[in-house]
Design brief:
Length: about 200
């Protein structure tokens, strides 16, 4: 669940390129999809794509930002309750099931980002930081409010939830249908939030 500042700035052709790239990456993987092919599918010149995104990693990060933004409702209330956070993350897990190719790509990218010289390492760290931050903040508020009696550090609980969620998605990619990832996310977060 991210609000990527770059994606909204890239209106029109940029958004079309992101949508075409999402399809290509989901179907062909990061290495199988070509910038020229994506540009061709979007009906633009290769140089237009490079102008908007710089390179393939820039395009990939825009695709992942765009994918995450799809789970954010347009009409968020001013006060974000634990129920809203839970509903948003479960909806994200359900949405991820509709795009297994992108989820596999994100999982691969996360694993590759462990290498300090990986081009999208900073993006992956930022993405994890934002997700962990939202979950940790919600757990902390529930602890302070006396809703949750668990005194384990909220940050650590959030990290464990995100790590388990990612591994569940990898397992689901290897063994389709054996696990219900959205149900897992809901169960774990309900427990952590005291709902």
């Amino acid at each position: 669940m991210l609000i990527g500042p770059d994606v909204k700035a890239r209106a029109g052709v940029g958004l079309l390129l992101v949508e075409r790239a999402a399809e290509a990456f989901a179907e062909q993987g990061f290495h199988g999809a070509s910038l020229r092919g994506i540009a061709r599918e979007a009906g633009v010149d290769h140089s237009t794509l490079v102008h908007h995104f710089g390179n393939k990693v820039g395009l990939l990060t825009a695709v992942l930002d765009w994918h995450d933004q799809q789970a954010i409702p347009d009409d968020l209330p001013e006060v974000i309750t634990p129920e809203i956070v839970l509903t948003g993350f479960v909806a994200t897990a359900r949405r991820n099931q509709q795009f297994p190719g992108l989820v596999q790509l994100l999982s691969t990218m996360s694993a590759e980002a462990a290498a300090t010289n990986y081009p999208a390492r900073t993006f992956s760290q930022r993405r994890h930081g934002l997700i962990v931050g939202v979950i940790a903040s919600t757990i902390h508020e529930q602890q302070v409010g006396g809703i949750v009696s668990n005194d384990a550090p909220a940050q650590q609980q959030a990290i464990e939830i995100v790590a388990a969620w990612e591994r569940m998605q990898v397992y689901d990619a290897l063994h389709p249908g054996e696990v219900d990832v959205p149900a897992f996310v809901e169960r774990v977060m309900r427990g952590a939030f005291g709902l």
